[in-house]
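Summary for the funding panel

The consortium committed to producing paired sequence-structure records for every protein in the target list. Below we show the first two records in order, beginning with the earlier of the two.
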Amino acid sequence: MHDNLFNIVIFADVIEHLIEREAALVEITRILKPRGMLLLSSPNENPRHVWDKCHVREFTPDSLRSLLTPHFSEVTLHAWWPMHWYYRWAAGALWQRFIGWVSRMGYNPFCKLAPQSSLAHGQLIAVCRK
Protein backbone atom coordinates (compact mmCIF):
# COMPACT_ATOMS: atom_id res chain seq x y z
CA MET A 1 0.00 0.00 0.00
CA HIS A 2 1.26 3.47 -0.90
CA ASP A 3 2.20 6.22 1.56
CA ASN A 4 -0.13 9.21 2.07
CA LEU A 5 -3.12 7.40 0.60
CA PHE A 6 -6.09 8.16 2.88
CA ASN A 7 -7.68 11.31 4.30
CA ILE A 8 -9.36 9.39 7.14
CA VAL A 9 -8.74 6.06 8.86
CA ILE A 10 -11.40 4.65 11.18
CA PHE A 11 -10.05 2.31 13.85
CA ALA A 12 -13.14 1.28 15.82
CA ASP A 13 -12.64 -0.95 18.86
CA VAL A 14 -9.47 -2.54 17.50
CA ILE A 15 -6.51 -1.08 19.41
CA GLU A 16 -7.41 -2.86 22.66
CA HIS A 17 -7.07 -6.23 20.90
CA LEU A 18 -3.55 -5.61 19.54
CA ILE A 19 -0.25 -6.64 21.07
CA GLU A 20 1.73 -4.54 18.58
CA ARG A 21 -0.14 -1.27 18.97
CA GLU A 22 2.87 0.91 18.12
CA ALA A 23 3.40 -0.90 14.80
CA ALA A 24 -0.27 -0.40 13.92
CA LEU A 25 -0.06 3.32 14.65
CA VAL A 26 3.12 3.67 12.58
CA GLU A 27 1.32 2.01 9.66
CA ILE A 28 -1.72 4.25 10.07
CA THR A 29 0.41 7.40 10.04
CA ARG A 30 2.27 6.10 6.99
CA ILE A 31 -0.91 5.66 4.94
CA LEU A 32 -2.57 8.89 6.11
CA LYS A 33 -2.19 11.95 3.92
CA PRO A 34 -0.61 15.04 5.48
CA ARG A 35 -3.17 16.49 7.94
CA GLY A 36 -5.10 13.22 7.60
CA MET A 37 -7.31 12.12 10.45
CA LEU A 38 -7.57 8.99 12.58
CA LEU A 39 -10.91 8.34 14.29
CA LEU A 40 -10.32 5.75 17.00
CA SER A 41 -12.65 4.26 19.57
CA SER A 42 -11.79 2.04 22.50
CA PRO A 43 -13.47 1.00 25.74
CA ASN A 44 -12.65 3.18 28.71
CA GLU A 45 -10.77 1.11 31.28
CA ASN A 46 -12.99 0.73 34.32
CA PRO A 47 -11.94 -1.17 37.45
CA ARG A 48 -15.61 -2.00 38.13
CA HIS A 49 -16.25 -3.57 34.74
CA VAL A 50 -14.29 -5.89 32.42
CA TRP A 51 -15.50 -5.25 28.88
CA ASP A 52 -14.05 -8.25 27.11
CA LYS A 53 -11.63 -10.96 28.23
CA CYS A 54 -10.09 -10.86 24.73
CA HIS A 55 -8.79 -7.32 25.26
CA VAL A 56 -5.02 -7.27 25.50
CA ARG A 57 -5.14 -3.80 27.07
CA GLU A 58 -7.90 -1.36 27.95
CA PHE A 59 -7.05 2.33 28.15
CA THR A 60 -7.71 5.20 30.47
CA PRO A 61 -7.97 8.63 28.85
CA ASP A 62 -4.39 9.40 29.95
CA SER A 63 -2.92 6.12 28.72
CA LEU A 64 -4.68 6.41 25.34
CA ARG A 65 -3.46 9.99 24.91
CA SER A 66 0.08 8.87 25.82
CA LEU A 67 -0.07 6.13 23.19
CA LEU A 68 -1.36 8.42 20.43
CA THR A 69 0.53 11.68 21.06
CA PRO A 70 3.92 10.54 19.69
CA HIS A 71 2.28 9.67 16.37
CA PHE A 72 -0.04 12.64 15.80
CA SER A 73 0.27 16.42 15.95
CA GLU A 74 -3.20 16.80 17.47
CA VAL A 75 -5.07 14.38 19.74
CA THR A 76 -8.52 15.20 21.10
CA LEU A 77 -10.37 12.77 23.36
CA HIS A 78 -14.11 12.55 23.89
CA ALA A 79 -16.25 10.10 25.81
CA TRP A 80 -19.61 8.52 25.20
CA TRP A 81 -21.72 5.59 26.36
CA PRO A 82 -22.83 6.86 29.80
CA MET A 83 -22.30 4.05 32.28
CA HIS A 84 -25.38 4.89 34.39
CA TRP A 85 -27.52 3.99 31.39
CA TYR A 86 -25.47 0.83 30.76
CA TYR A 87 -25.97 -0.35 34.35
CA ARG A 88 -29.72 0.26 34.03
CA TRP A 89 -29.83 -1.68 30.75
CA ALA A 90 -27.84 -4.54 32.33
CA ALA A 91 -30.29 -4.64 35.28
CA GLY A 92 -32.81 -6.54 33.20
CA ALA A 93 -35.65 -6.76 30.77
CA LEU A 94 -37.78 -3.90 32.12
CA TRP A 95 -34.98 -1.34 31.68
CA GLN A 96 -34.06 -2.84 28.31
CA ARG A 97 -37.64 -2.41 27.09
CA PHE A 98 -37.75 1.16 28.41
CA ILE A 99 -34.44 2.12 26.76
CA GLY A 100 -35.59 0.44 23.53
CA TRP A 101 -38.82 2.43 23.65
CA VAL A 102 -37.14 5.82 24.22
CA SER A 103 -34.65 5.00 21.46
CA ARG A 104 -37.49 4.33 19.03
CA MET A 105 -38.98 7.67 20.06
CA GLY A 106 -35.79 9.38 18.87
CA TYR A 107 -33.66 9.59 22.01
CA ASN A 108 -30.78 7.15 22.39
CA PRO A 109 -29.30 7.65 25.87
CA PHE A 110 -26.10 5.85 24.89
CA CYS A 111 -25.22 8.34 22.13
CA LYS A 112 -24.41 11.37 24.24
CA LEU A 113 -20.91 12.66 23.47
CA ALA A 114 -19.11 14.22 26.42
CA PRO A 115 -16.20 16.66 26.10
CA GLN A 116 -14.47 15.19 29.18
CA SER A 117 -13.80 11.50 29.66
CA SER A 118 -14.14 9.82 33.03
CA LEU A 119 -15.28 6.53 34.52
CA ALA A 120 -18.82 7.81 34.02
CA HIS A 121 -18.44 6.88 30.33
CA GLY A 122 -17.69 3.48 28.87
CA GLN A 123 -16.20 4.45 25.53
CA LEU A 124 -13.34 6.73 24.47
CA ILE A 125 -13.26 8.47 21.10
CA ALA A 126 -9.96 9.86 19.85
CA VAL A 127 -9.79 12.34 16.97
CA CYS A 128 -6.16 12.48 15.83
CA ARG A 129 -4.64 14.70 13.15
CA LYS A 130 -1.37 13.77 11.43
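The next record, for a separate protein in the list, is shown here:
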Amino acid sequence: MSCLVTSLLRQSKGTIFQEPSDFRPEREGLFNGSQTYSHREKYPMNRSNFQVDRYRHTQPNLAGGSKTTFLLVALALAGFVAVIILPELGFLKAIILLLALLAAVNAVFSSLTVVITDSGFEYWFGMGVWHKKIPLTEISGSAVVKNSWWYGWGIRLTPHGWLYNVAGLDAVEILLKNGRKIRIGTDEPEKLSVAIDHAIR
Protein backbone atom coordinates (compact mmCIF):
# COMPACT_ATOMS: atom_id res chain seq x y z
CA MET A 1 0.00 0.00 0.00
CA SER A 2 2.77 2.44 0.91
CA CYS A 3 4.46 1.79 -2.46
CA LEU A 4 1.20 2.58 -4.26
CA VAL A 5 0.77 5.89 -2.38
CA THR A 6 4.40 6.84 -3.09
CA SER A 7 3.91 6.10 -6.80
CA LEU A 8 0.76 8.24 -6.98
CA LEU A 9 2.47 11.14 -5.22
CA ARG A 10 5.38 11.01 -7.66
CA GLN A 11 3.06 11.02 -10.64
CA SER A 12 1.05 13.98 -9.34
CA LYS A 13 4.06 16.00 -8.17
CA GLY A 14 4.37 19.24 -10.02
CA THR A 15 0.97 18.93 -11.73
CA ILE A 16 -1.48 19.89 -8.98
CA PHE A 17 -0.72 23.60 -9.26
CA GLN A 18 0.40 23.63 -12.87
CA GLU A 19 -1.04 26.38 -15.04
CA PRO A 20 -2.83 25.14 -18.17
CA SER A 21 -0.52 25.44 -21.16
CA ASP A 22 -3.21 27.01 -23.33
CA PHE A 23 -4.38 29.54 -20.71
CA ARG A 24 -4.36 33.17 -21.80
CA PRO A 25 -5.49 35.97 -19.42
CA GLU A 26 -6.96 38.00 -22.29
CA ARG A 27 -9.12 35.07 -23.43
CA GLU A 28 -10.33 34.36 -19.90
CA GLY A 29 -11.37 37.99 -19.39
CA LEU A 30 -8.90 38.57 -16.55
CA PHE A 31 -6.96 41.29 -18.26
CA ASN A 32 -7.67 44.30 -20.38
CA GLY A 33 -6.09 47.70 -20.82
CA SER A 34 -7.60 49.09 -17.61
CA GLN A 35 -6.62 46.27 -15.26
CA THR A 36 -3.50 44.99 -13.59
CA TYR A 37 -2.41 41.43 -14.19
CA SER A 38 -0.20 39.96 -11.48
CA HIS A 39 0.94 36.49 -10.42
CA ARG A 40 -2.05 36.25 -8.09
CA GLU A 41 -4.40 36.26 -11.10
CA LYS A 42 -2.64 33.43 -12.98
CA TYR A 43 -5.45 30.96 -12.89
CA PRO A 44 -8.90 31.24 -14.46
CA MET A 45 -11.53 32.34 -11.95
CA ASN A 46 -15.20 33.17 -11.93
CA ARG A 47 -15.53 36.93 -12.37
CA SER A 48 -18.44 37.00 -9.92
CA ASN A 49 -16.01 35.92 -7.16
CA PHE A 50 -13.00 37.87 -8.32
CA GLN A 51 -12.27 41.59 -8.36
CA VAL A 52 -9.23 43.28 -9.85
CA ASP A 53 -8.02 46.40 -8.08
CA ARG A 54 -7.90 49.23 -10.56
CA TYR A 55 -6.35 51.44 -7.88
CA ARG A 56 -5.09 50.94 -4.33
CA HIS A 57 -3.26 53.36 -2.07
CA THR A 58 -2.72 53.74 1.68
CA GLN A 59 -1.73 57.08 3.17
CA PRO A 60 -0.34 57.16 6.75
CA ASN A 61 -1.36 59.90 9.12
CA LEU A 62 0.83 62.81 10.20
CA ALA A 63 1.73 61.09 13.47
CA GLY A 64 3.53 58.25 11.72
CA GLY A 65 0.79 55.64 11.46
CA SER A 66 0.95 52.31 13.25
CA LYS A 67 4.53 52.85 14.45
CA THR A 68 3.37 55.70 16.65
CA THR A 69 0.51 53.55 17.96
CA PHE A 70 2.96 50.85 19.08
CA LEU A 71 5.15 53.50 20.73
CA LEU A 72 2.22 54.98 22.67
CA VAL A 73 1.09 51.53 23.79
CA ALA A 74 4.62 50.69 24.93
CA LEU A 75 4.85 53.93 26.94
CA ALA A 76 1.45 53.32 28.53
CA LEU A 77 2.43 49.77 29.52
CA ALA A 78 5.74 50.97 30.91
CA GLY A 79 3.93 53.56 33.02
CA PHE A 80 1.42 50.97 34.21
CA VAL A 81 4.20 48.61 35.32
CA ALA A 82 6.00 51.50 37.04
CA VAL A 83 2.88 52.38 39.05
CA ILE A 84 2.45 48.75 40.15
CA ILE A 85 6.05 48.46 41.26
CA LEU A 86 6.21 51.93 42.81
CA PRO A 87 2.78 52.94 44.18
CA GLU A 88 4.14 56.39 45.03
CA LEU A 89 4.09 57.10 41.28
CA GLY A 90 0.32 57.15 41.32
CA PHE A 91 0.34 60.59 39.73
CA LEU A 92 1.30 58.84 36.47
CA LYS A 93 -2.16 57.29 36.17
CA ALA A 94 -3.54 60.34 34.38
CA ILE A 95 -0.63 60.29 31.95
CA ILE A 96 -1.12 56.56 31.34
CA LEU A 97 -4.80 57.08 30.56
CA LEU A 98 -3.91 59.90 28.18
CA LEU A 99 -1.34 57.74 26.40
CA ALA A 100 -3.86 54.90 26.08
CA LEU A 101 -6.45 57.29 24.64
CA LEU A 102 -3.96 58.71 22.13
CA ALA A 103 -2.94 55.18 21.13
CA ALA A 104 -6.58 54.20 20.51
CA VAL A 105 -7.29 57.31 18.41
CA ASN A 106 -4.07 56.92 16.45
CA ALA A 107 -4.84 53.23 15.81
CA VAL A 108 -8.25 54.08 14.36
CA PHE A 109 -6.93 56.91 12.17
CA SER A 110 -3.44 55.55 11.53
CA SER A 111 -4.01 55.53 7.78
CA LEU A 112 -6.59 55.96 5.03
CA THR A 113 -6.82 53.27 2.35
CA VAL A 114 -8.59 53.85 -0.96
CA VAL A 115 -9.39 51.02 -3.37
CA ILE A 116 -11.15 51.09 -6.73
CA THR A 117 -12.38 47.78 -8.12
CA ASP A 118 -14.46 46.92 -11.17
CA SER A 119 -17.65 47.52 -9.21
CA GLY A 120 -17.00 50.09 -6.50
CA PHE A 121 -15.01 52.78 -4.74
CA GLU A 122 -13.95 51.74 -1.24
CA TYR A 123 -12.18 53.53 1.60
CA TRP A 124 -11.45 52.84 5.26
CA PHE A 125 -9.34 54.02 8.17
CA GLY A 126 -6.64 51.97 9.87
CA MET A 127 -7.33 48.23 9.84
CA GLY A 128 -10.84 48.56 8.47
CA VAL A 129 -12.60 51.10 10.68
CA TRP A 130 -15.45 52.98 8.98
CA HIS A 131 -15.29 50.84 5.84
CA LYS A 132 -17.43 52.39 3.11
CA LYS A 133 -18.16 51.30 -0.45
CA ILE A 134 -19.78 53.36 -3.19
CA PRO A 135 -20.92 51.57 -6.37
CA LEU A 136 -19.26 53.05 -9.45
CA THR A 137 -22.71 53.41 -11.00
CA GLU A 138 -23.53 56.07 -8.37
CA ILE A 139 -20.49 58.27 -9.16
CA SER A 140 -20.76 60.95 -11.84
CA GLY A 141 -17.29 62.49 -11.61
CA SER A 142 -14.39 63.75 -9.50
CA ALA A 143 -12.14 66.79 -9.13
CA VAL A 144 -8.85 67.60 -7.42
CA VAL A 145 -9.41 70.08 -4.57
CA LYS A 146 -7.56 71.72 -1.70
CA ASN A 147 -9.08 71.70 1.78
CA SER A 148 -8.97 74.65 4.13
CA TRP A 149 -6.71 74.04 7.13
CA TRP A 150 -9.58 74.45 9.56
CA TYR A 151 -11.42 71.45 8.07
CA GLY A 152 -9.03 69.33 10.15
CA TRP A 153 -8.49 65.58 9.93
CA GLY A 154 -10.53 62.50 10.63
CA ILE A 155 -14.21 62.48 9.68
CA ARG A 156 -15.53 66.01 9.28
CA LEU A 157 -18.64 67.65 7.87
CA THR A 158 -17.60 70.56 5.65
CA PRO A 159 -19.45 73.01 3.38
CA HIS A 160 -18.54 70.59 0.56
CA GLY A 161 -19.91 67.45 2.20
CA TRP A 162 -18.23 64.84 4.38
CA LEU A 163 -14.44 64.81 4.47
CA TYR A 164 -12.33 61.73 5.24
CA ASN A 165 -8.73 62.66 5.81
CA VAL A 166 -5.67 61.65 7.85
CA ALA A 167 -3.02 64.10 6.63
CA GLY A 168 -2.42 67.12 4.45
CA LEU A 169 -4.81 69.44 2.63
CA ASP A 170 -4.99 67.73 -0.76
CA ALA A 171 -8.14 65.79 -1.57
CA VAL A 172 -10.39 64.50 -4.33
CA GLU A 173 -14.00 65.61 -4.36
CA ILE A 174 -16.38 62.91 -5.59
CA LEU A 175 -19.71 63.99 -7.06
CA LEU A 176 -22.51 61.45 -6.73
CA LYS A 177 -25.43 61.21 -9.12
CA ASN A 178 -27.85 62.10 -6.30
CA GLY A 179 -26.15 65.49 -5.92
CA ARG A 180 -24.15 64.67 -2.78
CA LYS A 181 -20.42 65.25 -2.53
CA ILE A 182 -17.69 63.66 -0.43
CA ARG A 183 -14.01 64.49 -0.13
CA ILE A 184 -11.25 61.90 0.25
CA GLY A 185 -7.92 63.17 1.53
CA THR A 186 -4.92 61.82 -0.36
CA ASP A 187 -1.26 62.52 -1.06
CA GLU A 188 -1.71 61.68 -4.75
CA PRO A 189 -4.90 63.55 -5.76
CA GLU A 190 -4.26 63.71 -9.51
CA LYS A 191 -3.66 59.97 -9.78
CA LEU A 192 -6.76 59.14 -7.72
CA SER A 193 -8.99 61.49 -9.72
CA VAL A 194 -7.82 59.99 -13.02
CA ALA A 195 -8.43 56.47 -11.68
CA ILE A 196 -11.99 57.38 -10.63
CA ASP A 197 -12.86 59.03 -13.93
CA HIS A 198 -11.42 56.10 -15.87
CA ALA A 199 -13.31 53.55 -13.75
CA ILE A 200 -16.74 55.17 -14.24
CA ARG A 201 -16.48 55.44 -18.03
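Regarding this second record: The helical segments are 2-12, 25-28, 66-85, 93-108, 189-199. The chain has five helices and nine strands.
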